[in-house]
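Q: I'm a student working through a structural biology exercise. My instructor gave each of us a protein and asked us to get a predicted structure, then write a short paragraph describing it. Mine is 6-phosphogluconolactonase. I'm not confident about reading structure output yet, so if you can add a plain explanation after the tokens, that would really help. Here is the sequence I was given:
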Amino acid sequence: MTKGEITMQETVYLGGYTRSNGKGIYRAVLDTTKQQLSTPTPLITTVSGPTYLAVNGDKMYAVAAGDGTGGVVAIDLAGTPHVINSVLLPGTSPAYVAVDAQRRLVYAANYHMGRIDVFVIRDDGGIALASSNQCTGSGPRPEQEASHVHYTNLTPDGRLVVCDLGADAVTTYDVDAAGQIRPVATFATAPGFGPRHITFHPTLPVAYLLGELASELQVLDYDAAAGTFAARERLSTLPPDWHGQNGAAAVRISADGRFLYTSNRGHNSITVWAIDAGGDVTPVQHITTAGEFPRDINLDPSGQFVLAVNQNSDNATLYRRDAETGLLTIVQQDIVAPEAVNVTFA
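A: Happy to help. First, here is the predicted structure for 6-phosphogluconolactonase. I'll explain a few features afterward.
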């Protein structure tokens, strides 16, 4: 570090399984000057299976598993972090959780139950169930025998968008202040696509839909007035010479809307995509995650780094990101991250 240079430290939380050596929710610090992530340490160890996290100010909402139940737990990060309360419903735990700060709601996508759960945020940051919404449908692949809701988050105009991997469907919903939802429109993907996650361009009316089962990225036009999607191009997330088993997992976009990043579980890589002025994409890099089964990746708040977590090898990899080319370079690997499957920067 040169004289006068300011050391920037960013907090990152890792969510993961607690089936083997994982302890729950971990915390680490990224030093952007040294280009180094501290060894993640357990933060909350009383929550079973916190595989996805969402942070809103000094509150965190995490997926949680119980004995024959699953739901969401609310955590206060101020002072000594502690659980405020949890709401667990019959069945399995969700796969995804997101916060709607304006409406003071939390959305959870329950993959195995095919359900959208909505919670209201109490004054103390705790949660209470507002509505539970069963989805239906199926697809041609063995993994699509029923609805499998994998993503519940907001469109840029404040609707709820839901990816149903089992039904090959992406549905938008209107949401009222009480947490009741009403379907607006459904986009049907190609059969067997398996929509997992979606992200939106920061300035263009364009969305990027990741198909887990097809290992493909679908570019969509988004009509905010109608809440509808229209298909554009669909491209493989894999290099042409790869023919092994793979499942696409995470999709993230840079703040300037110039680059997109997707992870491949099987090929064990990150695909870097350049986005042109109209929103179309071109793959420009496939880079190893230096581990097995990268279920999640995320850009840090400065946009200078990408962090990947490898579920099956219990490790994380840190990359420096070139803001002009979008290309990634590994700067740290073999970071111990037991059963980590989610990366959330504060």
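A: Here are two points you could use in your paragraph. Residues 146-235 form one domain. Confidence is low (pLDDT under 50) at residues 1-5. It's a good idea to check both against the output above yourself.
Q: Great, thank you!
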